[in-house]
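=== How it folds ===
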Amino acid sequence: MASTKTCTVTCSDSEPTEFIIPDFVGECRYPMRLNPHCDLVSRASEEWLCSEAHLVEPERTKYTSLRAGYFASSCYPDADAFHLKVCADFLGWSFKLDDWLEIERSDVNDAWGVRDCCLSAYRDPVNFQTKRYSAKMCKSYFGRFKETGGPGCTERFIHAMDLWFISAAKEVDNRAKGHVDDVESYIELRRDLSGCKSCFALIEFVNRIDLPDEVVSHPVIMALEEATNDFVSWSNDIYSYNMEQSHHSTHNLVVVLMIDQGLSLQDAVDYSARLCNISLQRFEENRAIIPSWGEEVDKQVALYIQGLQNWIAGPLQWTFVTNRYFGKDANIVKQDRTVKLIPKRPL
């Protein structure tokens, strides 16, 4: 169970000025590893992102400081350089697109337009033509994905991305209407909007495996994926709360709990932490009852489950290396776990 501390309230109107995050890193039972190709691939992927997205300062520094290559290296520590580069490019693109949809745009028609264009790029990365930077980038990284990705893995990635675009459009619409989901609705939406499902397809991609349908559809495998997705999503909601509240974003478990359950900020963070720990328990419980599909398939399943474990530990490691959530104070926050609230931006 993640440790909690009491939030200090210092201002006169009893509004919190800081909150305490759980010690997920210190209590993580899984090793935090880093791909040996990290530095080389990171440099190449950053150049790709800046070139393909036509980034200029200050955006260039903003997105290179996210360290998508390090993120990929933490989550896919055994990938070779070629496969790691595809993952790093995808993650870098995802950050840019996520910000574009969440911060820079509020028109749901824009979100649907991006979906249609990107899905067409996935279906035919060679021949599909577009002027959208977002879809051109899809053509680039997914064209390389298809060089080695198996047919099942490929379809799973595309389907997961379709779910992501649909949920992103819904979130854009929610934000435009000022609607905040209840907890149950939020959790359902978050599982598609986290991006984890497409990242799980990349586990197959980097390991050069293509899981049979009877494995992918098995309740235990699905439960393992859901538990991993929930932990990654909800821990990220805790880490990203400060940044998102400054942008007036309500698509965050902490915010939803505060509104739906009437909790204080610290109580909502602590409740989110308990849900994270329950998801880890679910992961281990289902890992203990994985069935057998025969020696050859079992080897593939073992690689996939190891990949899910890497996706539990990897984002924790990356969170305190990137500037995305805590800026230059990441190391300090990692040590004392105190996050000072930043002012909200003008509407």
About this structure: The chain is about 70% helix and 0% strand. The radius of gyration is 20 Å.
